[in-house]
Automatic annotation (TrEMBL), chains A, B:
Keywords: Hydrolase, Metal-binding. It comes from the Bacteria. This is Xaa-Pro dipeptidase. PROSITE patterns: PROLINE_PEPTIDASE. Residues 146-347 form the Peptidase M24 domain. GO terms for molecular function: hydrolase activity; metal ion binding. It holds the Pfam family Creatinase_N. It comes from Candidatus Roizmanbacteria bacterium RIFCSPHIGHO2_01_FULL_39_8. Residues 5-138 form the Creatinase N-terminal domain. Belongs to the peptidase M24B family.
């Protein structure tokens, strides 16, 4: 699996006439080697891919004597206080006669690039754009199986946790219960859950951690969360109505649900992923609902927001093996909002198959 | 408070003859404006500081009609699909006649810089280095009070949670109990806790999430965790011995404890922060213990690792208002390891005062 991914990078480099690629992004390193550090953003590791070899650079906290990568043809290089990445790079560039060195232009910091360019004065640094994130866009069978499992856990977690909804329960408590349910079983959250009650549900990306909402009689409750299972993520949003909602809310929900289901069907017949976005917006605004202030969806995998884009500005084609969300919403500022979201995979016949299976029929408790 | 911080940036810019500074780092934006987005790394906000004004750029999920910043002289600018940061920047640069635009070279990505430079062809882009993180290094009274409170919560959390240590408890369970204790009270973890038992404690930055350790009779248990209280962090490490440790372990602990206490005293009489690092390493290696594979400490504040550096390569002076950790360790690979860590503030008289007060005497339960 890793060997194959690395080979794909090598083929890309040959095509672009780039001798080597420096990989700095945490998730791209994980994708290529299975290796991960404790933090995603503290630059504790780098990878260099040449036609001969893969080099992994990290410090002795991670690269103990017995450490092995689950791939072939690699070399581990220890980052030490006086022997950092730049020293190693210079050595390898000399030894392997690297004339052009690609780097991840959307990830490498300005100063990191600057310091490398100072150190490797005779090497041409070549920005590469989204090379690895575009490879990651297409999931293999194992990845889809992991996301599918994450979705199954999501469904069960929501089923169990929604049972504790009652008058007086806070948004924070509900969010915490989702997390405890997962963590006790050894799973993790994919991101900080959004639990938003009544007027808070009208804020498309409400911050539950700083909010004060509490379930009241006849509350509208939005729950947006996901599960991390063996590094792969799911994403779901469901509405819970505590007590009978008003007719306006019920009708809006039915319209939103119909639009969301039709949008998933629309994915099946679309070639570009902006088509379902445009379709869904048109469907809802034609019914008199306000346009929603976010994309209709996004790719999901090792990260909660990755390629492909599912928005009206997206240039991305629909492809076999993509995993995306479909999550339109209806929001009335200061009053209430609702969103229905599923994680969906593009199957071998280019149809969209929904992986999150928690019921979407109006849920009144 | 924010006004004062922004004024300090303006003074810096005047001195450097830079007309405006683009701030991209999540924590620096939080420090300057109190504003924060849901994610730290998805570039959901930017700040631009000119001599006239502070501009905050974010999208409508965050900048609702009623949104107000806790400062003066600012303008909110909405990032929209077809009207992004670059469009706003171009407009403001024209209006305010900005000739030189500073940016955070250690934070801005290569491509972000590239796209800005393409768009602002007549503006000189000036890399600035650690400007804001160096301001953040010196904490004001309010910040120290928040860190002090985080440390108090840390002490109490550790006191309560250490009571559940018994044979058969896993590292993961202990880590989770620390978190549950905090979250139930509305607090947060500062970072993923390290709970490491026996041979795992010899790995300086052990990953509890992927580990399998379980407390046994006579186990050595390392607990390294911190609390986030109103965005400010604490950091502590303590050892728990379950049953009577061997003489070698007891002696090592006493030596490490003496060294750690003396190193905190050494901070008081040091001018450079590499001095306590060198002192502590020498003290322990002179006693025959192996050198530890990490810094003696680091700054703590909005981030768990920030300035000043407390390592033998550090150039940083000791200054009033710094908050740092002192955390030497003794590690025997494959056997056991230990680390003792406190969060320490530099007071007005330049002495070091320990904020984490959980007892350090050998703790056998």
């Amino acid at each position: 699996m890793y060997v194959e991914r690395i080979e794909r990078v090598k083929t890309y480099l040959l095509g672009k006439k780039i001798d080597a690629l420096l990989v700095s992004n945490f998730y791209n390193i994980l994708y290529l080697t299975g290796f991960k550090t404790l933090t995603t953003d503290e630059r504790e590791a780098f990878v260099l891919i040449t036609q001969n070899k893969l080099y992994l650079f990290s410090d002795e906290r991670y690269l103990s004597k017995n450490y092995k990568l689950p791939t072939t043809n690699y070399e581990l290089r220890l980052i030490e206080p006086k022997r950092g990445l730049l020293v190693h790079l210079k050595e390898i560039v000399g030894k392997e006669k690297i004339k052009t060195l690609g780097f991840e232009a959307e990830d490498l910091k300005y100063y990191e690039h600057f310091h490398i360019s100072q150190q490797l004065a005779e090497t041409k640094l070549m920005p590469t754009d989204r090379t690895l994130v575009k490879l990651r866009e297409i999931k293999d069978e194992r990845e889809i199986a992991l996301i599918e499992k994450a979705c199954k856990i999501t469904d069960k977690c929501l089923e169990d946790t929604s049972k504790i909804v009652k008058v007086g329960v806070s948004e924070k408590e509900l969010a915490f219960k989702l997390e405890v349910w997962l963590r006790e079983k050894g799973y993790d959250l994919a991101f900080d859950p959004i639990v938003a009650v009544d007027e808070n549900s009208a804020i498309a990306h409400y911050n539950t951690k700083t909010g004060e909402g509490i379930v009241k009689k006849n509350s509208v409750i939005l729950v947006d969360f996901g599960v991390k299972y063996k590094d792969y993520l799911s994403d779901i949003t469901r509405m819970i109505f505590f007590g009978k909602p008003t007719d306006g809310i019920t009708v809006a929900y039915e319209n939103l649900l119909t639009a969301q289901k039709k949008t998933i069907e629309k994915v099946t017949v679309s070639r570009k992923l902006r088509e379902p976005d445009l379709f869904c917006r048109e469907t809802l605004t034609a019914r008199g609902y306000p346009n929603y202030p976010h994309s209709t969806g996004h790719g999901v995998g090792l990260e909660i927001h990755e390629y492909p884009k599912v928005s009206f500005t997206s240039e991305d084609d629909k492809k076999i093996g993509q995993v995306i969300t479909i999550e339109p919403g209806v929001y009335f500022s200061g009053k209430w909002g609702m969103r229905i979201e599923d994680t969906v995979v593009i199957d071998d016949d280019l149809t969209a198959r929904t992986l999150t299976k928690y019921p979407k029929e109006i849920q009144i408790i």
